[in-house]
Amino acid sequence: MRGWALTVAVAALAAGGSASAEIKERRRDVFTLVYEAPVSASPEAIHARVFAPGEWWADAATLGGKGAGMRLDARSGGCLCEAMPAGPYVHGIVDDATRRDVRVYALLGPVVDAADEAWLHISWPQTRDGGRTVRMTYQVRGPHVGRLAEDADAFLAPSFRRLAESLAAP
């Protein structure tokens, strides 16, 4: 269902806007989630925060129940990892990381055992009015994964909300 909007009460941001989530694409074997929020932070502050997921990753979106244990390496080949007692658990591998975005191959939450591939992309483009937006896109492919779009949204939305809130004006 292309363009089916999923209105999510992600956050009322101090920057005056609100965050949104949308199931941008859903077919039997693919879905794409897009989260977006206006933020007031500088590009440098956004970069620093994105690469510090332990400060914003939701506890419920981890294996160990502690979002503070998440880390994201700011380099190609780096790790989206969770600190666990037996050693780091690799949730994803960084494909590309720049000063304005990061792309991670990451099978997360409900798609771990169902998807053939999944890409998490976080960017922070400048808006037409000179402001900034933080955007998170999650694209998943695999047999019958389209049915998991809502579950993946429920898994990722709290983390995005925390990221967006942490980048809003104080």
Describe the structure.
The chain is an alpha+beta fold and 170 residues long. The chain has a single domain (4-166), classed as Alpha-D-Glucose-1,6-Bisphosphate, Chain A, domain 4 (2-Layer Sandwich). 15% of the residues lie in helices and 35% in strands. The chain is built from 2 helices and 9 strands; from the N terminus they run βββαββββββα. The chain has helices at residues 43-50, 149-166, and strands at 4-6, 20-27, 30-39, 70-72, 79-82, 89-97, 101-106, 117-123, 132-141. It has a 9-stranded antiparallel β-sheet with strand order 1-2-3-9-8-7-6-5-4, covered by helices on one side. It is globular and about 40 Å long. It starts with a strand and ends with a helix. Mean pLDDT is 88; it is low at 1-17.
